[in-house]
Amino acid sequence: MIVASNATLVSGGIRQRLGIVSSKLADAAPEQACGKRIQPEGGDLEQFFKDKFKKGKLSAVELVQGSNAAPSTDSKLAKCAAGGKHPGNAHRDVMLNLGRKSKFPDVYSADLPLWNHDENQKKWSGAYFFLPYEVVDTMITDEDLEKLTNLRPDNPHKATIDDWLSKMGLDPEVPIAPCGLWGDSAPVGNRDSVTMLLFNILCANTSQYRFWVTALCKRSLCNCGCAGMCTFEEIWKVMAWAFAASILWLYLSVRHDGVPFAQSKRRGDKQRAMKATAKQRMKATLAPIQKRADWSWYKQILAFIGWKGEGATGRNCWKCFADHSTVPWTDFRLNALWRSRMMTHRDYITYVLNKIGYVPGIFSRPGFCIAYATIDLLHCGCLGVVAYLAGNVLFELFQMIGGLITSSLKQMGEISRMIKAASKAIGQVRPQ
Q1: Using an 8 Å Cβ cutoff, are 165 and 176 in contact?
Q2: pLDDT tens-digit profile of 131-149?
Q3: What share of residues in the chain are helix, strand, coil (percent, to 5)?
C-alpha cells in the first residue's frame, strides 16, 4: 500500500507527515493508491468540488470559481454570487443552492431572547432548528426501524428505554428511537465561541452520526444575570414540544408558540401544515433518554454544582452527595461513602428549587429525569482521566518486566513492541 510504504520515508510532525503522504498519493496512479480513483468519479468535476466544500476543504468562493472552470453547460452553482463577482454573497448563495437538493427537512424558525451588545439589553431574535422528529423521519431506514422495534436483551440502552416506556405508559411494541442530546461550545476566532446542541439515535445504524439541532454564538446568549438560562429555557420549550409531538406519532398543526402552521409565514411551515392536514404519521417515537455535556454546560443549563462545592460541607457533585469534608470525593474505593448516597430525581428537584426557584426546562421533555443526564466520556475520558489511566498501566507494565528509572531503554523497547503487536492484532493504527 502506498500509504504504508511512504509513511516510513518521511519525517516531521504528524501534520507534516500526513501532508507529504497525501501529496504522494495524489501523484500516484489511481490503481496504486489502495485501489481507489484519485480523479472525480465519472469525470464530474463540479461534484468533486461540491464534496470538497461539504468536507470543509473549499470555501464557497472557491467552489463557485471551480464550478465556473468545470466543463458544465448548465451549472447553477457557477451563477452564484454573480458568477463570483460578489464574493460576499457566495456562501449564502451556495448554501441556498445546495439546500434545495438536500434530503434534510427545512429548518424550523423560532424567536429566542438573545443579548444585544449595542443596546446592552435582551431582545427577541430569530433562530433556526432542525426538529429531531423530522430528521429521524428523513434519515431512518427500514433496517433501523426493525432494529428499534426488536431491541436485543443485551442492548446497553434497553433498560433505560424500558424505564422510560413504563413512565410514559407507551406500547413497548412501537418503534422507539432513543435519542441522546449532546451540548458543547467551541471557540470561533479570538473573541467568541459557538454553542451547539446536537442529537443522535442511540440504537441504529446511524448512531455514530450527530445531527444538528441548533447553534448560537456564545456572546448572543442572554446576559441579564441568568448566565444564559433565559435563552436555553426557550430552546427547551421548542425541544419539549418536538418530543411531545413524536409521542402522538402525528405531525402537529400548531407551532410550539401556538401559531397554526397554516397561518405562519415562517420558513417551512406551509409544508408542515400540509403534512398535518394529511395526518401524516411519523416513523418512530423519540425517547429522550440521554443528555451528554461537560461540567460547564451542566452548570449553565441545569444549575448543577461546581467543583468548588456548595454549602457548609462543600458538596461538589450532581450525581451523588460527595463533598469536601464528610463524604470525600477523593475516595475511589469500592466501599466509598459517596457510592451509597446517590442523588435521586426527587433530591435534584428539591435542590434546584431551593437554588434558583424553578425547574429547568429540559425536564419538560417527556419522561426526562436527572438519571438521564450522563457524564460525557469525551470530556471526562479523552480530555481527562484516560491519559492518566494509560500512564499508570504503562508504568505497571514497565515495573513488571523489571524496568528501573536508571535503566529503562530495554524495557521501554519491549513495551513498544507489545503495543505494535497488539495494534496489529486488532487492526488499529499504532499510536505515534
Answers
A1: yes
A2: 999 998 888 777 777 777 6
A3: 45, 15, 40
